[in-house]
Amino acid sequence: xxxxxxxxxxxxxxxxxxxxxxxxxxxxxxxxxxxLASYRVRPGGETQISQPKFYSWMRECDVGDLYExxxxxxxxxxxGLISKFEIFNDYE
Length: 92
What we know:
By secondary structure, the chain is mainly alpha-helical.
């Protein structure tokens, strides 16, 4: 087996992190608090990953910046490995 390129090592590392997260994701619908008194139901298999966790993954997987990370996720989406992604600021 040939050695992986640095870019492919980063992608593999992120895929492993996503798989770990997926394994912890409820497969059925989940009610979650969306405000002071309202709730929304999140579909099964959908997860939210916090921005601090994304930054931790970037450090662990040697991803240079958020732009590179978003490009990796967009590539996974194009390949059908993930259905969608959205990165948002936890403090907005």
